[in-house]
Amino acid sequence: MAKESPLKDKVVLVVDDEPDVLETVADELDMCIVHKAKDYDTGLQYLLSYTYDVVILDIMGVNGFELLKTSVERGFPSVMLTAHALTPDALKKSIKLGALSFLPKERMADLREFLEDVCWEPENPLDQVFR
N or C, fewer C-beta in 10 Å, the chain? Predict the structure, then answer.
């Protein structure tokens, strides 16, 4: 019998200005409740209005670093998902601002496994924080 994903029924916010990325993330995380925002203002409203198990943010196009600050202040585990801003400086800034990790968009097919490992892996010492 297949083990049930720890992501099942988790509430996820994804903020990206590309509609196809929003749909791909929602498809990859079909076991989750996914809120999608296509711009900074909508993403900020969601962050201030709901509680999330994980937040996935693009950097470019939606002012992802500012959204990351708000997400971390609210205590939401946050992951950066980007293509164009994949640089050492962007990675350092993401981690400094509190992102758990950074996933290139070309690896979106691995998103489910990636989030399971980063946010809910039993050996993760932060595991209790995210449950």
Answer: N
